[in-house]
Specification:
The complex is a heterodimer of chains A (520) and B (458).
Chain A lengths: L7 E5 L2 H15 L5 E6 L15 H8 L4 H7 L3 E3 L1 E5 L7 E5 L12 H11 L10 H7 L20 E3 L2 H14 L3 E4 L2 E6 L6 E6 L4 E3 L2 E4 L6 H6 L4 E3 L8 E7 L9 E6 L2 E7 L4 E7 L6 H10 L10 E4 L3 E3 L3 E2 L2 E3 L5 E2 L7 H14 L8 H27 L7 H8 L4 H13 L12 H10 L16 H20 L4 H10 L21
Parallel strand pairs in A: 1-2, 1-11, 2-7, 4-14, 11-20
Antiparallel strand pairs in A: 3-6, 4-5, 8-9, 9-10, 12-18, 13-16, 13-17, 14-15, 15-16, 18-21, 19-20
Chain B lengths: L8 E6 L2 H14 L5 E6 L8 E4 L2 H8 L4 H8 L2 E3 L2 E5 L5 E3 L13 H10 L11 H7 L20 E5 H11 L4 E5 L2 E6 L5 E6 L4 E3 L2 E4 L21 E6 L10 E6 L2 E8 L2 E8 L15 E2 L2 E3 L14 H14 L8 H29 L9 H13 L12 H10 L16 H21 L3 H8 L3
Parallel strand pairs in B: 1-2, 1-12, 2-8, 5-14, 12-18
Antiparallel strand pairs in B: 3-7, 4-7, 5-6, 9-10, 10-11, 13-16, 14-15, 15-16, 17-18
Classes of the chains: A alpha+beta (520), B alpha/beta (458).
């Protein structure tokens, strides 16, 4: 081949990003002759981001040949059917953003148009009663989706709540087996080629210097290589995403784990609750401009439902990202490339997609400008589209009970989001896109869930007689309810899947990667 | 709150098949809610003599209740499997919509093909495509519903005379449509700037809620100060062919001497379209930058003077009609849906312009001046890594883009590194088996003439 792959890869930092990257590259590119070394220090803790995931992680594990039951056991995972947002649109309101579609479309017209019309005469009717994921989540049920496309139970997907530290350890075991060399140590010096500015090596606190051809920065918020050494500028998005602190604390489980994440809005931020098999992950994400750290901790503690298992940890961050993720011969992944709060569980996804795109545009010996620019362009688009979706959660609110919510409700938002919201509100239409994470059903969930109901519906819906429409809607709701009633409860499903011997269980259950385009 | 569409009457102006297709679509899609439709037959016929339609037409016709057998029989359409690209110093390449090979381990086929070639194999890329195998033998078989059949991958469109298509569509319009043959003499606007009345040469005045301009001369849109589309000077030659019969189930395209020469055989004639290319500039399609203005929408020839080489005008009209259907106004404010409509339409045409500019580039000795910026971007990324950049509103799939580059003689410098997962020997064996399976399947298919005689002729 005319341009061989760069042979020596050095990953700076372990944690979720480092080990995901090491595992994926060693498993998929090991045969191409890569030598992969990962440096991490036991003295440096990991943030352990992304305890809640989205369905794509299943694709990642599958590509690595990791059997799902093994993964669930190793990470103390529970299943996840969506995220419940409480008090976001208004205090006292709640909805679940599901991993699944709503209802049944009317020809080419999306179901939410039908519902919009129906809702005008039945104001108490909820769109969310027409989602299998939501009905199952609220009933505490879980089963693998049906592979039969005609079955109502095929219309959802699932992800996991995981212990991210255990996931990193689990991947480390695999990665080392696949040939990754782990080096213990702290990076104390970073060497650059004086002519090109390219990185050449890293010196550790024990005096060892490791050289490489290509560097992957997984050093977390420090962004040791991309930010500190190569000086890549940070694009600050705090004018739209004002939360800049989080306090995290694990608690003992207070009951059977829910098959969904909870996101509860408070006066100056929001709280996550992520149920694992052995504990619950909790955290309060807030804006330090609007509430002090002590007050934020008090809010979190007042809203915990189990006994605290560790001291609360404070994290400081700024929403945004490095303008480019790949500069010279260094690419950053995870927190070292940017931070978006875990409101929609996108942290692990952003690591995953960066790894996949890096594999697509893997650096070669020679000139990498075109592949580097394309990688940066595509990652930029990923971040931008997720950014708009997250801003929507803050902006689409009627809350006026605090300075924080008044700011969010009235702040100027990006034009792309403004236009999307406007057309939806006026017509119920959602500008489709193919390249990006959140597809139309996700946008519909958050828009309608937070009170943006379209003023009109697609005129084709007018072909339906009101009485018949009402009957069809009631029947659909009833069918969904009955379909969910057959499912086992979440704990039983977990027990069955984890206890099963390898021969009994499908290692890679079939389910769509859901509403997301990337892996379709 | 609007509960009923404000559009009670639609006026469609133009000539050729587009106005009739539009009228038929509106009536079929809206069924009992359909507005009244008036077609004003006016202006020059903008259609090329022959249409080479992509496979989407089959599903589109199904959606608007046009039975395939009836359509093919009454228009004397033939089946279209793809186009053979001919270039100097290069092997012929069969370009089509059907897949070439299949992805393996999440890696697209053309990367595996590179490894196959690197292993010294001489099989051509299009040997791995059922359409190509069929077309080379002048055979035809429709797509099979059985997923494991080699014929499950057949993608076919149609070639037909545009005049026949227009006549056929006109014959299917029902009494809800009025057709008037007249010139548009004058147009009056409301205070809002929306079109109010159209005054015809026969003295009639027509009022409507929505106006659809299908004319190359912008007979309706000119009232809104829209720029008139340019006309192209493509040369068309029609020859009697010595060979009788339907003709090959494919076309040929010669890319050379600063021109693109597309030949279509149909029922004893060869239709040759010669598109001259400017070696010093990217082609200018003069796309209407605002196809939906106020209550007037440009469709087909009113949007641009020429459809793409690979993507025909029927597909583009159908695609625009679906978009219009999705955004059909539910209130009297047309401005909000128009924003989304225009942005997606321009994007779609721009992607097609990328494809055409690459053809021009190949015909003009690979002069980069011929490339649009996004075509250059695509070319760079494909050469660098065999990938396709991400654009919205693409008509062509990633695999079709890859096939187009290979058809134009562009090879990526490197294959996907994940191809290292399979050794050369088992890969070659697997691909050779696939090639043989496709060749055998093609040989078992009927000749086009026989298939046509037995299945189509009414």
């Amino acid at each position: 081949m005319s341009e061989p792959l760069v042979p020596r890869i050095l990953i700076a930092g372990g944690g979720t990003a480092g080990w995901m990257c090491a595992a994926a590259l060693s498993r998929r590119l090991g045969r191409a002759g890569l030598q992969i070394t990962l440096i991490e220090s036991e003295q440096i803790g990991t943030v352990g981001v992304g305890e809640a995931t989205i369905p794509h992680i299943r694709y990642f594990n599958e590509r690595l040949g990791i059997r799902e039951p093994e993964f669930v056991q190793a990470t103390s995972a529970t299943y996840k059917l969506g995220i419940e947002f409480v008090n976001w649109g208004a205090q006292g309101e709640a909805y679940i953003h599901p991993f699944g579609v709503f209802g049944k479309d009317f020809g080419e017209v999306d179901f939410h148009h039908l519902w919009t019309r129906h809702q005008k005469s039945h104001p108490q009717d909820s769109l969310f009663d027409y989602s299998i994921s939501v009905v199952a989540a609220k009933s505490g049920k879980f089963a693998y989706p049906s592979p039969n496309k005609n079955d109502l139970l095929s219309e959802y997907s699932y992800a996991f709540h995981i212990d991210a530290s255990r996931y990193a350890s689990f991947l480390r075991q695999h990665a080392e087996k696949w040939g990754v060399q782990r080096v213990e140590g702290r990076i104390v010096q970073i060497h650059q080629n004086p002519d090109t500015g390219d990185l050449t090596g890293l010196t550790l606190d024990n005096g060892t210097t490791l050289e490489a051809d290509f560097f992957i920065d997984c050093s977390g918020f420090q962004s040791l290589l991309l930010g500190r050494t190569l000086g890549e500028k940070f694009d600050d998005w705090s004018r739209w995403l004002p939360c800049d602190r989080a306090i995290a604390v694990p608690t003992a489980s207070d009951g059977p784990p829910l098959p969904y994440t909870k996101s509860i809005a408070h006066q100056s931020g929001w709280q996550w609750r992520i149920p694992l098999q052995h504990r619950t992950g909790n955290g309060h994400v807030y804006s330090s401009q609007h509430v002090s750290d002590d007050e934020a901790l008090a809010v979190l503690r007042n809203n915990l439902t189990g006994e605290e298992l560790a001291e609360p940890r404070l994290l400081k961050f700024t929403a945004g990202r490095r303008k480019k993720s790949w500069v010279k011969n260094c690419v950053a992944m995870g927190l070292s490339s940017g931070f978006l709060e875990p409101l929609e569980s996108t942290s692990i996804y952003l690591i995953q997609i960066a790894i996949m795109k890096l594999a697509d545009f893997f650096p070669r010996v020679g000139d990498n400008r075109i592949r580097r620019d394309e990688f940066n362009l595509q990652m930029n688009q990923e971040y931008e589209r997720i950014k708009d979706f997250l801003i929507l959660h803050y902006h689409a609110t009627r809350r006026d009970d605090s300075e924080f919510w008044n700011f969010c409700r009235t702040m100027p938002i990006p034009d792309t989001l403004k236009q999307r919201m406007q057309i939806f509100q006026e017509t119920g239409y959602l500008n489709p896109y193919k390249n990006g994470l959140f597809m139309a059903p996700s946008w519909v969930a958050v828009l309608i869930g937070q009170g943006i109901i379209p003023k009109t519906w697609h005129p084709a819906i007018n072909a339906l007689d009101s009485h018949n429409l009402n009957i069809s809607m009631q029947q659909l709701k009833q069918h969904m309810k009955m379909a969910v009633e057959q499912l086992p409860d979440h704990v039983t499903a977990l027990r069955q899947h984890c206890a099963a011997t390898p021969a009994d269980v499908n290692p890679w259950p079939q389910a769509a990667m859901s509403l997301y385009s990337v892996f379709s | 709150m609007a509960t009923i569409s404000p559009i009670k009457h639609v006026v469609i102006a133009g000539c050729g098949f587009t106005p009739y297709l539009t009228g038929h679509f509106i009536l079929q899609k809206w069924g009992g809610l359909a507005p009244r439709v008036t077609i004003i037959h006016c202006g020059e016929n903008p259609d090329p003599p022959v249409l080479n339609c992509v496979s989407s037409l089959k599903a589109f016709h199904g959606d608007i209740k046009i039975p395939e057998r009836d359509f093919v029989g009454k228009t004397t359409a033939s089946f279209h499997l793809g186009t053979t690209y001919r270039q100097k110093n290069q092997h012929d390449f069969f370009m089509c919509e059907a897949p070439y090979g299949s992805s393996l381990n999440g890696v697209r086929f053309h990367h595996w093909f590179q490894q196959y070639q690197a292993a010294g194999q001489t099989g051509a890329f299009d040997d791995f495509c059922i359409n190509a195998q069929l077309a080379k033998l002048r055979r035809f078989v429709p797509r099979s519903d059985k997923p494991n059949s080699a014929y499950a991958q057949v993608h076919y469109g149609y070639k037909l005379l545009s005049e026949n298509y227009a006549d056929y569509l006109r014959s299917r319009l029902d009494s809800r449509t009025t057709t008037i043959k007249a010139k548009i003499e004058n147009i009056s606007l409301k205070n809002s700037g929306y079109i109010d009345n159209v005054y015809l040469s026969n003295g009639q005045r027509i009022t409507a809620d929505l106006f659809i301009d299908c004319s190359q001369e912008h007979h309706l849109k000119r009232a809104l100060n829209a720029p008139k589309s340019a006309t192209l000077n493509d040369i068309w030659q029609v020859h009697e062919t010595l060979e009788c019969g339907i003709g090959a189930p494919s076309n040929s395209l010669l890319l050379a001497n600063n021109a693109l020469t597309l030949e279509t055989e149909l029922h004893g004639k060869t239709y040759r379209q010669i598109i001259s290319c400017n070696a010093d500039a990217a082609p200018d399609w003069l796309i209407d930058s605002q196809p939906w203005q106020k209550n007037c929408i440009a469709l087909g020839p009113a949007v641009s003077c020429r459809p793409g080489l690979l993507i025909d005008s029927v597909h583009l009209v159908a695609s625009a009609l679906y978009r219009l259907y999705s955004l059909w106004p539910a209130s009297e404010d047309f401005q909000i849906p128009a924003i989304s409509y225009n942005s997606a339409t321009i994007d779609e045409w721009s992607r097609i312009a990328d494809s055409d500019s690459l053809h021009t580039w190949a015909a003009c000795g690979k002069n980069e001046n011929c490339l649009t910026a996004s075509a250059k971007h695509r070319l760079d990324v494909f050469i660098s890594d065999g990938r396709n950049p991400l654009y919205e509103n693409e008509t062509m799939t990633d695999d079709q883009w890859a096939a187009l580059f290979l058809a134009l003689g562009i090879q990526p410098k490197v294959a996907d590194p994940l191809t290292a997962e399979i050794d050369a020997a088992p890969l070659v064996a697997q691909l050779e088996k696939l090639r043989e399976t496709l060749r055998a399947a093609a040989q078992h298919a009927p000749e086009l003439e026989k298939f046509y005689r037995e299945n189509v002729v009414l």
